[in-house]
Structures are given as C-alpha cells and as structure tokens.
C-alpha cells in the first residue's frame, strides 16, 4: 500500500495500491493541512502532523480508533515524522530541533538535538524493516521485473502486479511490453 496526505480542496489522509488503484480515504473530517505521515507497520496505525491545527493524530488503516496524540503551541512548525518503539520523532522547522514525543499519551516531549535545515526524519533500524516475501515484481529469467518491460508496480496484494511504461511509451496489448 501507498499512504499519503492531501490538503488541496479537501484535506485528507489516503491509501491506495502501489499501482494507484483502490484509492481510499482514511481520514477526511476534522483535518486541515496534514503534512508529515508515519506508519506503525506492526499494529497498522497511521500517524500524521496537521500544521494548521498544530496537532499530531493517529488512526488505524481504516480510519477507526482516531485520536489526538498531542496538540498545541509546543508542537508548532513540525515537519517530518517517524515512529520507532514508544516514540514519534519529528523536526521542529522553527528552531531546527529533533523532538521525541511519547506516541501513546503525548507526554515526555523532549528536544534531542539541533540540526541544520532538516525537513524530514527517518529511523533506520533492522527491527523496523518488514520481511520481504516473494512478490509479483520479482525479476524474471529475462531480467524484467514481473515480466514488465519498463516498470512493475505491486497491485492489490504481493501476488498481483500492474505493468506501466516510462514517459513517451504506451503499454502494448500484452499488458507487459512498452512501445
């Protein structure tokens, strides 16, 4: 799945398959400018920062169990969001500090370090990486991902895929080759 935010005409948090199909709104009410987004892959929660409402919120992948983690002036100007163990990590773009926030109750907000001009934050740790199953976009014996001549995108499951073409090409009738 691909998770993303939008705050054009109607602000929302959404998800879709990697090929863009099955687009679904997770949250579309009481939301103004969702910017940063982070996933808890184990428990299937999506966290987001709303820079207009000065809040960090969470919901499950279906938009249920929604609640506010923290709200107010102390978290103004946040950009970037990462989740690791019991904490959310974010960057305050106003004073360029990395903040750590308890993701269960919003308490224990700590400035960990100052950084120069950061706009995003990521946690890279072996435990946060999910195990990869064999999938539909694996390289075939001819060196083509999923049998696609250009681009292979996972679809509704790791067993399904959609072939796409680079700019200037169109997909052939076989659904795999680009012309």
From TrEMBL:
<protein>
    <submittedName>
        <fullName>LRP1B protein</fullName>
    </submittedName>
</protein>
<feature type="repeat" description="LDL-receptor class B">
    <location>
        <begin position="1"/>
        <end position="43"/>
    </location>
</feature>
<dbReference type="GO" id="GO:0042813">
    <property type="term" value="F:Wnt receptor activity"/>
</dbReference>
<dbReference type="InterPro" id="IPR050778">
    <property type="entry name" value="Cueball_EGF_LRP_Nidogen"/>
</dbReference>
<feature type="repeat" description="LDL-receptor class B">
    <location>
        <begin position="44"/>
        <end position="87"/>
    </location>
</feature>
<dbReference type="GO" id="GO:0060070">
    <property type="term" value="P:canonical Wnt signaling pathway"/>
</dbReference>
<dbReference type="GO" id="GO:0005886">
    <property type="term" value="C:plasma membrane"/>
</dbReference>
<dbReference type="Pfam" id="PF14670">
    <property type="entry name" value="FXa_inhibition"/>
</dbReference>
<dbReference type="InterPro" id="IPR011042">
    <property type="entry name" value="6-blade_b-propeller_TolB-like"/>
</dbReference>
<dbReference type="Pfam" id="PF00058">
    <property type="entry name" value="Ldl_recept_b"/>
</dbReference>
<dbReference type="GO" id="GO:0017147">
    <property type="term" value="F:Wnt-protein binding"/>
</dbReference>
<dbReference type="InterPro" id="IPR000033">
    <property type="entry name" value="LDLR_classB_rpt"/>
</dbReference>
């Amino acid at each position: 799945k691909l998770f993303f935010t939008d705050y054009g005409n109607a602000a929302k948090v959404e998800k879709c398959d990697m090929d863009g199909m099955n687009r679904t709104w997770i949250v579309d009410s009481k939301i103004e400018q969702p910017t940063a987004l982070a996933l808890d892959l184990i428990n299937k929660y999506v966290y987001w920062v709303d820079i207009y409402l000065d809040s960090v919120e969470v919901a499950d992948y279906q938009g249920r169990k929604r609640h506010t983690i923290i709200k107010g002036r102390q978290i103004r100007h946040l950009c970037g969001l990462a989740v690791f163990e019991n904490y959310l990590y974010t960057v305050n773009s106003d004073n360029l500090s990395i903040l750590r926030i308890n993701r269960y109750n919003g308490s224990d907000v700590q400035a960990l370090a100052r950084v120069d001009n950061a706009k995003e934050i990521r946690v890279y740790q072996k435990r946060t990486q999910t195990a990869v199953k064999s999938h539909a976009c694996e390289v075939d014996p001819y060196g083509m991902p999923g049998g696609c001549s250009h681009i292979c995108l996972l679809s509704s499951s790791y067993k399904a895929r959609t072939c796409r073409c680079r700019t200037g090409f169109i997909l052939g009738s076989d659904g795999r080759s680009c012309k």
